Amino acid sequence: PGAESARVAVKNAAAASADGVVQLFKDNKLTVLTTEEPVEGIAFGGAYKGIPDIVTGPNKAIIDLKLGGQTYRRESLKKGTSYQLASYAYLLAGGNTANFPLAAYYIMRTRRLIGPSGAFGNQGVDGPSLVETWDGLKAAHAAVWGAIEKGEFTAPANGDPPEEDALEAGVLVLAPPCGFCDYAALCGRAFA
After folding, report:
1. Which of 38, 63, 106, 187 suits 53 as a labelling partner, its CA being 20 to 30 A distant?
2. pTM reported for the whole predicted model
3. pLDDT tens for residues 165-182?
């Protein structure tokens, strides 16, 4: 209830972009290996998992379907902050960064594939590699846990938060509000 217009928008975008996905697969001689199948591994000292939208073959590659947000996704690739794609690549590579598969976003509204340079033969977005993004995520995790182990806990939205996401000196920095969770009181977004 109450989400019918959103469901209709998604349904229409999916139907309208289906031919683009089919053409993408034909042009790149891809097959579907899995859809919405969980992948799991170990990272950050514990279980780590994700659910990529499509994993293709014959060589494993990831296509993450997005309804919109083309500019945001392009900028995240350019800045090295596409941690979702990097996480999927890490999991599919079995934790071996030397074996990261290709990964890209498919924007359903515009029927565009947006990925790092060379992904799926597209012109791509120049920026840090997904391995560099993954390494930045690991460095950010290590820095935060290092501070917590010292008894320090900083709410990023309080004080002097970064204005935009970035990969700075090999560390992934995300600007609040992230908008992806319900824990706004932890980062300070609830009190801004």
Report:
1. 187
2. 0.82
3. 888 888 888 877 666 666
